[in-house]
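Journal club side-thread
Mid-discussion, someone asked how the predicted structure for our own chain would compare to the paper's figures. Pasting it here so we can look after the session.
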Amino acid sequence: MPRKNHQAAEIQRSYYTKTAARYDSMHAHEASTDPSMSKFVHALLRMVEAHSVLDVGTATGLGLRELKDALPEMVVCGVEPVAALIDEAVQQGNSARVPIIQASGDALPFLAASFDAVCEFGVLHHASNPSAVVKEMLRVAKKAVFLCDSNRFGQGSRAARLLKLFLCKTKLWRAYTFLRTGGRGYFITEGDGLAYSYSVYDSYDLVSRWADRVILIPSGPGEKSSSWFHPLLNSSGVLVCAFKERS
């Protein structure tokens, strides 16, 4: 791992270690923790007849426990790199019926196609290399992958959204981000710690090459619009549902 990325990872893990006891209350109103998104995923897991699911970046395991409650017959497992968050999961009883393994999303300790489904909720915008995490998720998934994360193209004013799309299409986004962050490449906020400007559309090509079918569901607050730009420019978060239908 490059030194800059290693330092960023340490900053993020330090932040979560300090805020582990308050994690659930701090992130209760994020789009990735919206109960309606969880219900979508639960229904789709039933649809594909999944018998096992892995949650990448499971934090305190609250969502993992809710998944097990909704689908008690399913084998459920989580991975989380921050020891303090796993300790919090144990204290809250969230890991009583589901294992949580300390591991990083870009190096999942599982064989290929180990789980019918693999999901993440609000994790990728914290990764310096989200593509590495998505590749690992696709590697260990057999039937379905769910990415519920941010979409920078649906955030800010309409002018800002169009500018970000233009910079991305003209290959100028990295230079713009480098200048905007003073060379760091990331932002640090009190409520979210260290995060990168990310969109699930950054991972779309990877996912679409793996999947036979991809469904996009708006997951964040955005403009009420029937525009054909929706959800690209009209939703601050998107749930990407990717399905492999061939045997």
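Post-session note: The domain at 3-243 is CATH 3.40.50.150 (Rossmann fold).
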